[in-house]
Design a protein that fits this description.
This protein starts with a strand and ends with a helix. α1 crosses α18, α11 runs parallel beside α12 and α11 packs across α16. It folds into two domains: 270 residues, 3-Layer(aba) Sandwich (Rossmann fold), CATH 3.40.50; 186 residues, Rossmann fold (3-Layer(aba) Sandwich). With 486 residues, it is α/β, with parallel strands linked by helices. The chain has a nine-stranded mixed sheet, with helices on both faces. Strands 17-16-15-18-19-20 form a six-stranded parallel sheet, sandwiched between helices. A three-stranded antiparallel sheet has the order 10-12-11. It binds adenosine-5'-diphosphate.
């Protein structure tokens, strides 16, 4: 199959979050499976210096943006497995220090910057000699590709245009701009209406992606259901409900080449589901690294991530206040809200032999926490997919999660399925519910046989990208089979 993917960030060229990793892994695994894959992304400042094998592509862009024609170049990097990355070059748009804005706020011309990206994607999709059969865009930055393709298909004579799949990674970011920016799209005015891309008098890029795409996906099955509710839909629940028939959830994958318990450069010992001795040694090393008493028989809990409201930090803090009176230890790696950072520091000062905190970003330590802990805490308010619960499972660490989004998709509680249980789940967003789940973990810790079975169940789960990519392929095929019917 011939697939063109577009994203505002792609690892290792640019990254602000999980989107960059997801797009990189999806493209890599599709190409490895023998498909022709192209990736379109901006040429941000510094990329060419870091990747000197990027070459100028014989392609000049001259795109209408309202009344002006805007010029751009295309650069290309071809990887050995057949993956081509097309970099859109327009220094005045992309040659900046940050991807989306400074700490003071978003760049004021973001509508123009990413509309130019979308128009470049459409131009490549239409004229590339290898003729992509499916177009896959991600989040609001590339979502306007969908109405642009739809318009070319219905009014521009591009009758065999590829179907568009739009993936929603986080509904909280929609790309909402003043109505005047709509002129930059050069679309007929009837696109700017409530059942099109208009949203309370403004232009909403993500809504446009939802309305005009042929398939909408999000990053877990549960989040696909939640997104159609008022509580989680961020104002787009109605539009998503209308597209329910073509809206599906596909859980992201894990790169098991990196997240491995064997010969992992970040872990001093290897282990597997039948021999957990290495895990015990990593636990001791982690306790020493975090300056906690190195006790083998104390249950060690961990947490990693952005210290933001979304992650349920308030109920985690409240519950630890209460639970640290028990015989347990807790380690945290994260950064974010200054108030949360301060609260965790205070907690550690009050419980120096039970609680240790590292504020910052540290990939090596994140592996050691995932591998060295007995339990991993994720009480998120909402979690479109989440990765840490999947890492925990692979590392034989029992995840304790709130039932939401991808956490619900990946973790199986004893109550749901005693034979295949791999974690502990709780429903209510409250300190009491989090504490109750920790109490369950303390009991489980003393039931060694059951604990081992649950660890083995978790380690046997397959969240590989190979599986995720084949699920996307299944949907791409369905899209292709519908092309003849439109
Ligand atoms: P989100 O994208 O909402 O932040 P995810 O769980 O989907 O949450 O992905 C976050 C990724 O970033 C995970 O791989 C997690 O381990 C990693 N991460 C988050 N904070 C840190 C940190 N302080 N140090 C190292 N890795 C981190």
């Amino acid at each position: 199959m011939r697939i063109l993917i577009a994203s505002s960030e792609v690892y290792p060229y640019s990254k602000s979050g999980g989107l960059a990793d997801m797009v990189c892994a999806l493209a890599k695994f599709l190409a490895r499976a023998g498909h022709q894959v192209g990736l379109v992304t901006p040429l941000y400042g510094g990329i060419r210096e870091r990747f000197p094998d990027i070459k100028r592509f014989d392609w000049r862009l001259m795109l209408p943006m309202g009344d002006e024609l805007v010029e751009g170049q295309v650069w290309i990097r071809s990887l050995p497995d057949g993956l081509n990355i097309y970099f859109i070059d327009n220094p005045s748009f992309y040659g900046r220090a940050e991807l989306y804005g400074r700490h003071t706020g978003d760049y004021p011309d973001n509508a123009k910057r990413f509309l130019f990206l979308c128009k470049s994607v459409v131009n490549l999709a239409r004229y590339l000699p290898w003729q992509p059969e499916v177009l896959h865009v991600h989040d609001w930055h590339t979502a306007l590709t969908a109405p642009l393709v739809f318009n070319e298909r219905t009014r521009g004579g591009w009758t065999d245009s590829p179907p568009v799949c739009c993936t929603l990674h986080n509904l909280a970011y929609q790309g909402i701009f003043p109505a005047e920016e709509f002129a930059l799209t050069n679309l007929p005015s009837d696109y700017f209406r409530p059942n099109g891309m208009e949203y309370y008098g403004k232009m909403n890029c993500l809504k446009a992606g939802i309305v005009y795409s042929d398939l909408i996906t999000t990053v877990s099955r549960r989040y696909a259901l939640e997104a159609t509710t008022e509580q989680f839909g961020c104002g787009l629940d109605g539009v998503l409900s209308e597209k329910r028939e073509v809206f599906v959830g596909i859980v992201n994958g894990v790169d098991y080449e990196e997240w491995t318990t064997e010969s992992n450069p970040y872990l001093r010992y290897s282990f597997d589901s039948h021999n957990l001795r290495g895990k015990e040694s990593i636990k001791r090393g982690l306790q020493e690294e975090m300056r906690l008493p190195a006790r083998a028989n104390v249950p060690l809990f961990g947490s990693i991530g952005r210290l933001a409201e979304q992650k349920g930090v308030d109920i985690l803090l409240g519950s630890l206040e209460e639970m640290l009176s028990a015989d347990m230890q807790f380690v945290l790696l994260g950064s974010g809200s200054r108030d949360f950072e301060r609260a965790f520091r205070k907690l550690a000062l009050r419980h120096p032999s039970k609680c240790a905190i590292k504020i910052g970003f540290d990939t090596g330590l994140s592996h050691r926490i995932e591998a060295g802990c007995d339990f991993f805490l994720m009480p998120s308010r909402f979690e479109p997919c989440g990765l840490n619960q999947m890492y925990s499972l692979r590392y034989g660490t029992i995840p304790i999660v709130r039932i939401t989004g991808g956490l619900d998709d990946c973790v199986i509680d004893m109550v749901e399925d005693p034979e295949n249980a791999n974690g502990i789940k709780f429903a209510q967003y409250s300190i009491q519910a989090q504490s109750q789940a920790i109490r369950k973990a303390l009991i489980l810790y003393n039931e060694k046989e059951l604990l081992d079975v649950m660890r083995q169940n978790g380690m046997a789960m397959d969240f590989s990208w190979k599986r995720t990519a084949s699920e996307y392929l299944l949907y791409y095929r369905q899209l292709l089979s519908n092309v003849g019917k439109r």
